[in-house]
Specification:
Blueprint (H helix, E strand, L loop, with lengths): L32 E4 L2 E4 L3 H12 L3 H9 L2 H12 L7 E5 L5 H10 L4 E6 L2 H13 L6 E5 L12 E7 L8 H11 E12 L8 H20 L2 H13 L3 H10 L3 E8 L4 E7 L2
Parallel strand pairs: 3-4, 3-6, 4-5, 6-7
Antiparallel strand pairs: 1-2, 7-9, 8-9
Helix pairs in contact: 2-7, 3-4, 7-8
This protein binds S-adenosylmethionine.
């Protein structure tokens, strides 16, 4: 999120009239950094680090989703697809589609006369999505494109609906990605962002922390031989902007009639906004 990211501090310009000996040494521009979980990493390195996570988890991604969420992710995604308002014959884009759960729901809604573009920055995840949709017998009206959410390779005003499920928190420049999703929506089109958010668990919060930081990484080690990626998952959730902050970022990118639904006590939130 841009507000979390440090831009360069700027170089202190020396005044022309100051004698060389009295001039303060020029401050070096500090490199731009961003969050990768709880680490700060150079801005331009985050994509490669995120790619490493998803290359590693791709083969076990669906199993882990079911185990980690006790199957709840299916309900969150079903709710998201219901809120798209898509009709047969319309065109939809799923960004950061991964193994394609949302894309499958979109494809079923728009039917054979509609069209769904399924995109992900990561070839290994996109392959999972393609296999999932082909196995489900969905082929003719779907296309798969490897693409970065920050630079979508599509014409403006093309889609009736854009979805991004559990993808935004991994994107380096979230405002840029939201701006791109706005650009490719038709006027009247809608964006749905399904993402982990700030839970409203009150006294149960320590349990959520215990689950996130102790149980999740162990599950990752047991089921996917990958503890670090699941530690990143827990940390990246904590670094992601809360419900209201994300809503304001959407509004800044031009979205209107923005609102969000807290799901499972805000562990996850679905944000919806329109390009009018
Ligand atoms: C947690 S998975 C979510 C997959 C799927 N949408 C779901 O709901 O199960 C996050 C996905 O975001 C993708 N991703 C990360 N950064 C991205 C970017 N800059 N542009 C597009 N996809 C990205 C990853 O490759 C990964 O497939």
């Amino acid at each position: 999120m841009t507000t979390n990211d440090t831009g360069g501090s700027g170089t202190a310009a020396e005044t022309a009239s100051a004698p060389a000996s009295a001039a303060a040494p020029a401050r070096r521009r500090s490199p731009r950094t961003t969050d990768f979980g709880y680490q700060r990493v150079p801005w331009e390195q985050k994509k490669a680090r995120v790619r490493g996570v998803f290359d590693s988890v791709a083969p076990r991604y669906d199993l882990m989703n079911d185990v980690m969420s006790a199957g709840l992710h299916r309900l969150w995604k079903r709710f998201t697809v219901e809120r798209t308002g898509l009709k047969p014959g319309q065109t939809a884009l799923d960004v950061a589609a991964g193994s394609g759960d949302l894309a499958l729901g979109l494809a079923r809604r728009v039917g054979a006369s509609g069209r769904v573009l399924v995109t992900d920055i990561n070839a290994s995840m996109l392959r999972q999505g393609r296999d999932r949709l082909l196995d489900a017998g969905i082929a003719g009206n779907v296309a798969f494109v490897q693409a970065d959410a920050e630079a979508l390779p599509f014409a403006s005003r093309r889609f009736h609906c854009v979805t991004i499920g559990f993808g935004l928190r991994n994107v380096t420049d979230k405002a840029a990605a939201l701006g791109e999703m706005y650009r490719v929506l038709k006027p009247g089109g809608r964006l749905l962002v399904l993402e982990f958010s700030k839970p409203l668990l009150g006294p149960l919060e320590p349990l959520y922390d215990l689950y996130s930081f102790q149980v999740l990484p162990r599950l990752g080690r047991l089921l996917a031989s990958d503890e670090d990626s699941y530690r990143y998952l827990a940390e990246s959730i904590r670094r992601h902007p809360d419900q209201d902050t994300l809503l304001r970022t959407m509004e800044k990118q031009g979205f209107e009639r923005c609102r969000y639904y807290n799901l499972s006590a805000g562990i996850v939130a679905l944000h919806v906004g329109f390009r009018l």
